[in-house]
Amino acid sequence: MSAIIMDGKGLADEMQVEMFKTVEGLKEKGITPGLVVLLVGENPASQTYVKNKEKRAVALGFNSLVKRLPESISEKELVNEIEFYNQNPDFHGILVQLPLPNHIDAETILNTIDPSKDVDGFHPVNMGKLLIGQPDMIPCTPYGIMKLLARYKIDIAGKNAVIIGRSNIVGKPMAQLLLMEHATVTIAHSKTANLAELAKTADILVVAIGRGHFVTKEFIKPGAVVIDVGMNRDQNGKLIGDVASAEVAEVAGYLTPVPKGVGPMTITMLLYQTIKNAEKQVKSF
């Protein structure tokens, strides 16, 4: 057996074409989707990630702004920046790039973003809506994974899903999205006993643990769908996932690669939700 590789980049490219058409239609009605990214400090990984977001947004014809702010900015000053864009109708999405400097409380900052412009989906109001089954803004990585599962016609209802990782960014919202599609969901983590045995019960295994090549073929049920959310660097600086992909591909039925798997879908869903917000503005006229 050799797993079918789930092409996240290909799906992202397909969606980009459709989103471009939508943006053109919005512009004809006088609305240009606007996204502002607030980038604090000089974190190299954040700089790269924001550059990729900006490139994709510009290609779609967005009103795209990256506001670069000094590492020394105070929490109050950053709150004021967010409040300005909360009130600015030209911007339909606000994103504060994490991590933030240690002197700034990330929770305070994320809670300041207007929930209706929270295209990352991290505001407690949006997380609460997701929890009660009435999602609005959805965390982008889990949302992208659901799009990928749909693209490959993966039947979710009645399946056992195991998620390794319990973060608010991936693990918890991923569990809720799978529950909404009638999977039976288990969230596992670093304190889970017999992790490999539990993972091997999964028809759908989502791995977001942040440890390079942690999941080996011993974790995999034959034919399982394996979603690798990990982004790590090996000793040679090569980008690798949380899944030992070469050996897991021999057992799994489907597998997302790293790179070009989940990553491109995360940025795509951020832009997708910004466009959806812009469409709401048209409907409110």
Automatic annotation (TrEMBL):
Residue ranges constituting the Tetrahydrofolate dehydrogenase/cyclohydrolase NAD(P)-binding domain according to the UniProt record: 139-281
Pfam families assigned to the protein according to its UniProt record, in alphabetical order: THF_DHG_CYH, THF_DHG_CYH_C
Tetrahydrofolate dehydrogenase/cyclohydrolase catalytic domain: residues covered: 6-120
UniProt entry keywords in alphabetical sequence: Amino-acid biosynthesis, Histidine biosynthesis, Hydrolase, Methionine biosynthesis, Multifunctional enzyme, NADP, One-carbon metabolism, Oxidoreductase, Purine biosynthesis
Entry-linked InterPro entries: Aminoacid_DH-like_N_sf, NAD(P)-bd_dom_sf, THF_DH/CycHdrlase, THF_DH/CycHdrlase_cat_dom, THF_DH/CycHdrlase_CS, THF_DH/CycHdrlase_NAD-bd_dom
Catalytic activity: (6R)-5,10-methenyltetrahydrofolate + H2O = (6R)-10-formyltetrahydrofolate + H(+); (6R)-5,10-methylene-5,6,7,8-tetrahydrofolate + NADP(+) = (6R)-5,10-methenyltetrahydrofolate + NADPH
GO terms under biological process: L-histidine biosynthetic process; methionine biosynthetic process; purine nucleotide biosynthetic process; tetrahydrofolate interconversion
Function: Catalyzes the oxidation of 5,10-methylenetetrahydrofolate to 5,10-methenyltetrahydrofolate and then the hydrolysis of 5,10-methenyltetrahydrofolate to 10-formyltetrahydrofolate.
Protein name according to UniProt: Bifunctional protein FolD
Organism, as annotated: Carnobacterium maltaromaticum LMA28
Classification lineage: Bacteria, Bacillati, Bacillota, Bacilli, Lactobacillales
Gene assigned in the entry: folD
